Structures are given as structure tokens and as C-alpha cells.
Amino acid sequence: MNIYLLIGGSLSLVASALHIGVIVGGPDWLRFFGAGERMAVMAENGSWYPGLVTGFIAVALMVMGAYALAASTGGAGSAHALPLPLPLPFVKWIVLAITAVYLLRGLALAPMYFVMPEQVNAFAVWSSLIVLALGIFHAVGLSQVWKHL
Length: 149
Fold this sequence. Notes:
Blueprint: H1 3-25, H2 27-32, H3 37-44, H4 49-71, H5 91-107, H6 109-115, H7 122-145
Helix pairs in contact: 1-4, 1-7, 4-5, 5-7
């Protein structure tokens, strides 16, 4: 098991669960976790949009976590590492794309600070740092198992 991909994949699954919690928690949770007042008000008014967007993010994070965990065994059988009914396709390349997404999202704060400084708030900073850490875990882990995938 590659500890970096194991941690990265597990944290993606935790983030997915938190997003599901936000859907269940409603407007107050949307506010607390930084979705913004607009999304919270939409949820208060009965709109399905905040739940749909948050659900999409939860599913994406779940898939990202599954792929990282599948790659964490490193080896040709890594796609079969999880007890899934079907093996995951293209593990190497999808984990590479996931890593790039995490790193780019985490690093996006720097140019955002210069282009839209009014958008840089506490949520933007701590969420960027979390996502950057996830990207680093994925990058280190993927670099260690790359030739075995």
C-alpha cells in the first residue's frame, strides 16, 4: 500500500461525506462550510440547485477517492484492489488527472489574489490549502507507484 495515495484517497472520501452532510444540514451548513450566502438563501427558498451542485461534488470526490485507493496498491492489480464489482479503468491516467485538478485548484489562490483580491477570504485560503495538500499527497504517491501502474 502506498501511504500517500491511501491518505489522499481517504481524505477525498471524507470530503465527499462532508459534502453529503452539507446537503443534509441545509442552509446553515452551506454557510458554515463556505458555499456562500447566495447558495444558502437558494436552499432556504427550496431550490434544488444547491443540493444538486453539492451532490455532484460529493460524487466526484467519491470517485476521486476510489481511484486513489485503487492506485495505492501500485501494481498491475491495482484496479482490483478495492472490492468493486468491476475494475476501475485507466487508473494511472485518471489519478494523474485527479492530481492535476487538486494541484491546480490549490494553487489557484495565488493568481486569484492578484486578479480578484476581493474574493480571497478565510474560506478561499483554508480550502485552497486543504486541496493543495491533497494534490501533494496524490503527486508524491503517484510518483512512487507510477511505473507499477
